[in-house]
Amino acid sequence: MVLVTSNKHQKLLFLNYVQQVSVADLATARTEIAALLGDLPSGLRLLADLSQLESMDPEGLGEIGATMDLINQTGVSLIVRVIPDPTKDIGLNILTVFHYPRHPRIITCRSLTEALRKLSLWT
Question: Under CATH, domain 2-118 is a member of which superfamily?
Fold first, then answer.
């Protein structure tokens, strides 16, 4: 499952990857993201929380790349990822090279609390 939400005031897009994530989950999330991006300004910030991810279908990497392209078109300025276990990176660093040519700032955190602090959403 992928939960998708946004906060226009905070210029924030939030993706939460939970338990087993299928290609269908990723495709649905991309559709939801496309709908939300119309309301978000350029220079948005992306928070991707993978702390609850147990597994992801390897066939979903194409969907993740397409989602990155979609977000890149909006003009993402900061990407904060929550990855408590670096072995569960799922190839995001490699995909980033190809799908974020504008080279937004990327921060990887081990907890959601740390990520929220980096985004100045929690003191």
Answer: STAS domain (3.30.750.24)
